[in-house]
């Protein structure tokens, strides 16, 4: 046991006042999203009916490295930020490693994950523009929860389409969204044409994220003063999440260290980019050599096994075409508990960075992620979200490598959320009924071959 | 929206290094616990087979106002302490009150409540004495969770008897305890004579807290190197919880204010005493006039409707006789969701203080507590435990009184835990299926008349 400092905070005055837009500093800029109808590069105004205008501009901004955080958003960040940077002495001891392990604890947000960092500005920009309603989809519910609360804060009505099977099987998250005042509708529903079409054909359809996205987008497009809000993948979402890494940078300074390795779990890229980009800036501009590891599920391995090509971000093909590492938008990921990582593609920024070898992917099996989460729970007391368990597993691999080599590396990972609403998954792990899902190289190739080349 | 400071923290160096033992400063000391066999005042050694020796000494210590917190415990406190003192600007705005409302956010503890503040020292003192096993009972599971984690930290084995109906109906908390490595047994069980006796008579018995306590105590007494650990009621538990109020005192100083009213919800008294006693010290010693309000459920109103007499702390009558405000140890509280407040009596310190009018009780109905929790969730983002909802309801009553009178009082309450594992209760409230449980004056008198006068 150590008497050295365990947790590092920033004062409210020290909390960053700008987000970091890595697009401005990238040597090779991301290729442009494409309007699938015109095959022309997307302009901000092409998306004005879908997102608040300010968000559309942020999405495509390759000029400004620093974007001011509106004062109203900074005021709300104070409700839970700075989040603690924690030296994981307990985990180090359990692993008997010479590595210094730190984690940024985003699970202390009132909604239990980093998702609120982007839900707040998205709701704020909508409010500022005179929008009255926001809508989104949610699977297990982390993103829906964050948007429900953010909408309440800024006086917007929120409508969340939740995948029907989750709506029924995970009533806790639904109740949390309703406690914040959101309208939660199981999807498919009779409230949209997309939903009606499915239910007419198949009354007992249990829903999918793809359908829920379609319903939310349809509602946004057909409702006056309503916009859609995205929980990951898009560049403006990752921009907002850089508050994580910007804080961590100042906190690491207080700890007197600088990370050799930065790790985030990877679904669409917003939490990974959030913790990584502020440090990657110093690789690009100041010759630092930090490694950046995106920990993805072995059952949905777009970074380690996907291809780089233009693809849709949704199953139905409603979104612009994005240049991304993808398994194909028709890829159906296995039903792992880390629902937030079950996405076929990577955001455009991360995809370019991976192509340029500025970062690396690491695939983690479900059982390894739960084994890591259990070790972490016992050592540090916090039960991680199944998604975050992937980052922990990657950190443990690196810490064990340090033990082998005797190197005293500094490892920083993002604890993106807690797992208190996911205890059914832990229960399954503890009772031995969880298993891994393998996806073969052949399966991936076959799936990709079925896809059109859009560009 | 305000740009003023929202949250107040202490540096790790500023975290208090001693607990506050109000017994030493009380004008009228608590009357002694009585050994029911001998009818003599209890001595520390009478309890050595039940609790770690250091805890037995703390229990009866009326000499020392300040007790050093062992360095090993302080090291572990750093994992989550200081907890934030939060200015509830959102709640103030929602109530349009001139009152300044602050809350101490104990929900950020890794186990989700203040219970860890005492679980850690209890496990530590056991370890130090060479004890290898600890045991306790738990209903919904807040205390069992805290002890499971604390035992893991100090390398002890933990056995938790969980009331069978909760074990089956609330698998999330059971899974949390198991994740920390505890053995969780549904009570009644075949592992004790108390359990066997019941199951032999009634195989489908669903258990009660009283039975689970009996099983845990029996296991502790019959197992070499095993001790029982108490989650509330006892004076040494409240002593450990004073870390809450001692931190809050320093944090209020940073906020430049001093509370006119301090509020805690009330089950056995440990969280109420924890936040109150360090401030009450200044009423006793320095002429301050702060009001202290213990918010208890209207369905279990020992402070507002009970009598002061010697009574047992458990249903079966295994414990020493305690001088307490009680509804009778055979009182069966209604099945409200605030399970932690379903206790028939008050600890000996609080009972003496109430008798001496140093504090007051306030009874809150279940529906009022959930209405308060919902308002708080929307205004501050944090979903409170049903227990904490009682403190919030009391704070709201006082804040509304300030609006009436125009007074700018400073109100401080303890947010003892979050409600993320209790969303089923919120679900019921939102769907209109929750109701109040009244308990009549007559019912209470009848129950008390059935009890013997033990002393």
Strand content of chain A: 15-25%
| Computed CA radius of gyration of chain A, to the nearest angstrom | 21 Å
Please mark out the parts of chain A with pLDDT under 50 across 5 or more consecutive residues, or reply none: none
CATH T-level fold name of the largest domain in chain A: Rossmann fold
Number of helices of chain A: 17
**Distance separating the two termini of chain A:** 58 Å
Number of strands of chain A: 15
Based on secondary structure, the structural category of chain A is alpha/beta
Biggest chain pair contact, residues each? A-B, 48 and 48 residues
- CATH architecture descriptor name of the largest domain in chain A: 3-Layer(aba) Sandwich
Widest β-sheet, arrangement of strands of chain A: 1-4-5-15-10-11-14
Helix content of chain A: 40-55%
Which CATH class of the largest domain in chain A is shown?
Alpha Beta
**Sheet of most strands of chain A:** 7 strands, mixed
* Coarse shape of chain A: globular
From the structure provided, what is the oligomeric state, counting identical versus distinct chains? homodimer
Summed over residues and divided by their number, the pLDDT of chain A gives a mean of: 94
Number of structural domains of chain A:
2
